[in-house]
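Sequence, please.
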């Protein structure tokens, strides 16, 4: 067995044979991939415009093996990128050419379901939807439901603090996790959180939500389960004007109603989704709202009547209410398939994820339209309207010289506009490599320094997912990006919208 050599990340190419030999002391050979054809499937996540082959891939089967891998990489100075299902849209699981990719796909077991306490203890590679499917016989479900829930893993959900249609009412991942097990870069196993509602000390559990694999590797998650609502109905309202639809969203929330989901799609998206799943969407509408109410039958019927009246007062041109469970699911099918449906409109699309105060919806949509004209690239919009979480999809063709770059520039302008109106550069997809420049716009130097201090406390040698999510101050200077204070807007476009 070769003795481990100590290497500085990125400055020296790690000795892959020595690393392999050291890992193989504990990790079985079939769990370590080094051949180019085995590494290729891991070269990107859902942000396929960015690709890089890892030095090697490890697919551990036990927590002991994860500890050994991290401890060994720490000794060797080799960076580690954790990966769940690889559906992330911001390049968080993009491998590093001098690093090890740590895939959690073999951690795919539901360890315990506790219906009395309404919790489930699961491994991080378990698919989001598999949790709800498993606990369904108990009349329970796991609420956060990203559109990628058939595939994405709960570990990836925690690392990105994933959201979904039902998060408006039931909270993001951070609100639905009770505890987790984390392995540090030096191989220690820590338990964060507990079965109790609150605990002493800093809330390290909350810190892990959205930590993008930069503080530790999640190897077990205890999630909260909710009783399945007795009844749910969806109102689908059509608008001949996007602005009216935006105001309708604000009006529903202002009346004190918190729908189970409140989603909006614009014309381009409606057409794409309708062609794809035939959900019965009105093709002539400029925008539709899907508003779900859930609870007991009497409560839902009362709220449906209230919502109907608000939407009519807000100027909707047509309104339909699902009359069966089948129709409710059909209304949602179009929304849930919006991304693949848009994929049929153009060779490539680039999905942006930003959040704005709800009242700014109309102004920001006008801004996006302006950018779309300026850059000559169509943009269609689908969003978690109730949360103010936008997903503009920029259509482009990567085979055309310079179009990817143009799409990225346009996306960056949209995110900066979100910050300028008091919003954020991410609603649920994380920062990864995609939005690292806009982090310099969102945060001041002092704030970024605090992020680095937290990272340093967990990972002093910067080996966990380095180069992602938090830019160095030097990079911000290099980008020339400037922190934007809300309401002190160095953003000339805002005057126009
Ligand atoms: C069609 C489509 C629709 C989507 N819709 C939504 C949506 O509605 N809402 C939403 O929030 N997201 C959505 N996403 C984005 C994506 O599915 C989520 O970000 C998801 O949480 C990623 O999970 P994953 O298992 O694929 O993680 P990966 O992509 O593998 O990894 C994501 C990040 O988490 C880290 N990570 C993964 N596992 C671990 C672990 N065990 N320990 C530590 N770090 C880890 C990685 O290093 C990386 O930084 C969508 C994606 C697609 C392709």
């Amino acid at each position: 067995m070769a003795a481990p050599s100590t290497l500085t990340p990125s400055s020296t190419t790690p000795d892959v044979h020595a690393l392999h030999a050291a890992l193989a002391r504990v990790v079985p050979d079939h769990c370590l991939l080094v051949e180019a054809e085995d590494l290729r499937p891991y070269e990107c996540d859902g942000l396929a415009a960015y690709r890089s082959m890892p030095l090697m891939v490890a697919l551990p089967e036990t927590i002991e093996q994860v500890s050994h891998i991290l401890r060994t990489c720490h000794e060797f100075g080799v960076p580690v990128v954790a990966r769940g299902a690889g559906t992330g849209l911001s390049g968080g699981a993009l491998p590093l050419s001098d690093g090890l990719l740590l895939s959690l796909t073999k951690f795919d077991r539901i360890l315990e379901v506790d219906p009395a306490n309404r919790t489930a203890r699961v491994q991080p590679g378990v698919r989001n939807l598999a949790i709800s499917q498993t606990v369904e016989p108990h009349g329970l479900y796991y609420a956060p439901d990203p559109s990628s829930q058939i595939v994405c893993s709960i570990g990836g959900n925690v690392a990105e603090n994933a959201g979904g249609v039902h998060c408006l009412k039931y909270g993001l991942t951070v609100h639905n996790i009770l505890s987790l097990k984390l392995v540090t870069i030096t191989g220690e196993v820590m338990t964060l959180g507990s079965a109790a509602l609150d605990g002493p000390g800093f809330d390290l559990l909350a810190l892990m939500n959205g930590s993008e694999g930069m503080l530790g590797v999640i190897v077990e998650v205890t999630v909260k389960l909710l009783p399945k609502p007795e009844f749910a109905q969806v109102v689908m309202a059509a608008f001949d004007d996007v602005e009216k639809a935006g105001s309708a969203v604000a009006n529903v929330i202002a009346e004190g109603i918190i729908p189970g989901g409140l989603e909006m799609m614009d014309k381009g998206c409606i057409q794409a989704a309708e062609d794809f799943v035939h959900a019965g969407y009105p093709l002539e509408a400029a925008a539709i709202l899907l508003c779900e109410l859930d609870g007991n039958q009497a409560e839902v019927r009362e709220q449906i009547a209230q919502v109907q009246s608000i939407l009519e007062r807000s100027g909707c041109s047509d309104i339909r209410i699902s009359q069966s469970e089948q129709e409710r699911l059909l209304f949602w099918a179009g929304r849930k398939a919006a991304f693949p449906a848009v994929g049929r409109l153009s060779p490539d699309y680039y999905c942006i994820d930003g959040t704005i105060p709800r009242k700014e919806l109309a102004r920001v949509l006008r801004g996006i339209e302006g950018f779309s004209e300026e850059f000559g690239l169509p943009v269609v919009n689908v969003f978690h309207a109730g949360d103010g979480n936008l997903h503009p999809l920029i259509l482009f063709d990567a085979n055309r010289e310079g179009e990817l770059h143009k799409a990225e520039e346009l996306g960056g302008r949209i995110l900066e506009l979100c910050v300028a109106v008091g919003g954020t550069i991410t609603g649920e997809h994380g920062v990864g490599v995609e939005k690292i420049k806009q982090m310099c716009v969102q945060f001041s130097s002092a704030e970024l320094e605090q992020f680095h201090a937290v990272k340093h406390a967990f990972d002093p040698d910067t080996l966990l997912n380095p180069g992602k999510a938090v830019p160095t101050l030097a990079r911000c200077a290099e980008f020339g990006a400037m922190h934007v204070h809300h309401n002190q807007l160095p953003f000339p476009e805002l005057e126009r919208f």
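DSSP finds 18 helices and 19 strands in the chain.
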